[in-house]
Predict the structure.
Amino acid sequence: MNALIFLIIVSLLYYIATRYFSERLDALSENHKYYFGGGVIIYLAIWYMFVYESSFVHKVFHNIYHSEQPLYSMNSAASNAEFYQRHNPNANIKSILLMRQEHRCYKCSNYIVDLGSAKLSYKILPKFGGKNDTHNLVTVCSTCSEFL
């Protein structure tokens, strides 16, 4: 209830400011009415989430607080590999991708005999909108990996 009273008081202050100081507000920004309206909508959405969806908000903040690693890190490829190996201890991502590609290089279609020489690559690079998951990963031969 206090949050709604606060919103009413702020709205009254804004009404008084627009009534008596409209020239100054227009000089600062011509879109101040849109900004205030957007702020009110965001304030009401946050208020609604905290009042009526408190269990959801609690779960979100709980998950954020108890996350094992930051959402973005400087070495995300290595951290994702560790995460994958931790949850799939018997899986080798290169061998899975090679079986999916029928032991052929994704770029030149030559057979890859040595698993150690195969390199991982993206179908679509993440900076161009590709996702960072196994469906966007492919294996390429050592020759093709030099041209990536």
DSSP finds seven helices and two strands in the chain. Residues 2-65 form one domain. The chain has two domains: 2-65, 92-145.
